[in-house]
Amino acid sequence: MADKSADYNKVAKDLARREAELGELDTNLRKSRADIDKLTADLTAREARLAELQKALAEKDRAVDALKASVSNALRGFQGTDLQVKMKDGKVYVSLSEQLLFKSGSTKVDPKGQEALKQLATVLQQQPDVNVVVEGHTDNVPFSRPAGAMQDNWDLSVLRATEIARLLTTGGVAPERVTASGRSQYVPVAANDSPQNKALNRRTEIILTPKLNELLKILDSNSTAGGK
């Protein structure tokens, strides 16, 4: 009887141990299923955010393409070596040569340049969600006789950009959308080693960027979600 009781106790302990192991396995299985469900939900949410981001990027690209087409059409009569419209880094660049806009060393826009800027301003009035940056650029030839408000190429590039910004706002573009800046000689498009190349560097670039409010909201939500 003692041996049978010992055997019974041993079997009972083994059974209890196995039941405990089964209980632990069941708990782990439930936890794994919960983890899988959570990962599945996270993946679904990420896929939805990615789809939303891709949609916003596609809309931004369409907006930039439409903007370039509108600007190119409005400035068709001016385009050539003195005026070019191109896309770069998701923005529309309107590059205007010094010859179209200014006399040498001057900050006053010539009549033909004023007409081109007037046409551009008309287009931009119809594009309220586009920011405008006016960048003045020069060659590397220093001023021989600095005078008044212009001491060097920095001054010249800034004053020219300011004059163009003023003409755009006079043409109907909201001033809060426009930024004027001067880059002097430090962002050339060609080496300053010939008269032709120096002429290329003496230019004004008007950079048009659609506002990316919706895209930024999506990126911010993704960043917030990723940090949790």
UniProtKB/TrEMBL annotation:
Cited PROSITE patterns: OMPA_2
Family annotation (Gene3D superfamilies): OmpA-like domain
GO cellular component: membrane
Domain OmpA-like: 89-212
Residues forming coiled coils: 22-70
Superkingdom to which the source organism belongs: Bacteria
Keywords noted in UniProt: Coiled coil, Membrane
PANTHER family: LIPOPROTEIN YIAD-RELATED, STATOR ELEMENT OF FLAGELLAR MOTOR COMPLEX
Name of this protein: Cell envelope biogenesis protein OmpA
